[in-house]
Amino acid sequence: MTTGQITIKPRYCECDPMGVAHHSVYPVWFEMGRTELLRSTGISYREFEEEGVFLAVVRLDVRYKQSARYDDDLVLETEITSIGRVKIEHAYRLLREEVLIATGHTTLACLNSEGAACLLPDRLRSSVDSC
Amino acid sequence: MTTGQITIKPRYCECDPMGVAHHSVYPVWFEMGRTELLRSTGISYREFEEEGVFLAVVRLDVRYKQSARYDDDLVLETEITSIGRVKIEHAYRLLREEVLIATGHTTLACLNSEGAACLLPDRLRSSVDSC
Amino acid sequence: MTTGQITIKPRYCECDPMGVAHHSVYPVWFEMGRTELLRSTGISYREFEEEGVFLAVVRLDVRYKQSARYDDDLVLETEITSIGRVKIEHAYRLLREEVLIATGHTTLACLNSEGAACLLPDRLRSSVDSC
Amino acid sequence: MTTGQITIKPRYCECDPMGVAHHSVYPVWFEMGRTELLRSTGISYREFEEEGVFLAVVRLDVRYKQSARYDDDLVLETEITSIGRVKIEHAYRLLREEVLIATGHTTLACLNSEGAACLLPDRLRSSVDSC
Fold first, then answer.
1. Nearest to C15 among D17, D24, D70 (CB)
2. Which domains does chain B have, with CATH numbers?
């Protein structure tokens, strides 16, 4: 299935008094991973929204294994693990060199501009299938 | 001029590796102060937006005098210092008991849903004048 | 088991271009729920940290069922569902009146100031047991 | 004086219901600009902190001129405009191609690990003087 990598450097304000990246910022990084993975298949999420198609997170699961610190050089691997008619699932692995920092999974549902479930756009499905 | 007070407790994720509230969260607190000040005059900012009226920050100035820490009991005083035809100015004082933590000023401009400057709604101007 | 409630009003900056609270802010609200639940048993998390005891999130799971919007009046119910020697588990239900917005679960591990696993403080365990 | 450039892409969660980057995220971008400017002179802010030297923002001023949107390609120019014995000042210009989005200024003070004012490290002063 389609996979991609981005680099992440935890920002100062993303780190907490323990000196480590706060756990609530990982879902933000996952979203960045999804955006860039989509872009790599030739699709802009911003264009989706301009056409009235939205992808809403309906499930999030994160396992935190090691801390990440301010200014660390991290790599986030994002993979599409399943794509159905209205939902798409991703898996994530966050690494600092060989050290596994965290893993995660999300499920997104496709919504129209009224917030009702709708079919994932064909060009998203076909871009994934062709990978 | 119209003034109001809210209480603030810095959240854990709002504090940085120095153990103090990050400077970028103060503008967020100022916005909360404005929302509640507006509400105290009987106006909901959410209703404004539903009517297509937006208030955009065009200037922000903050002086940080002392640190605020996680779980501190802070008081934010918000005051409308000037109201014109399209702009409104606020001043802020953030305190922990008698200690002055920070002061700030903002200027907001009224925009319509296309992002063009427009007149501040009459009921905002009159609610301020009557205080 | 010990339970508590707090009220939440999504802040403007917590809402995204879809007009709804961004999914990454839910873990922040859950943390606020834990802090207040702890406080209700007479324990300050800030004091824990001052004594060199830290609670780190090692697992997070959220199911998003309905959107929350700016300035909504939400209630977050937080419950301790399990407490062991080094880990503590919480469950969350976020509601807008009778509507269930989201549910969540977290597992926290107790760490010392070097980041090594350590026993949960006795007074935390006993405060929970006595509820 | 020393200057540097970084690229910025507003994240989805940094944008608000108006569809534009929230004003509170600009100070976060300015901090990123300072970190990379420092790095370009061969200094890591993280190392500073590990040696017990902290730079705290004591003044922030931002003028917002145009909106920035999700996924825009922005450039942030950061310049050191003044360096004294304990304080350092920066100016910022945020651009989308030729369009000026915002300008800003900050003043930072050097603090030791007890939070008391202290002299800026010699190697910071000399790295700036030599540019």
1. D17
2. 3-129 (3.10.129.10)
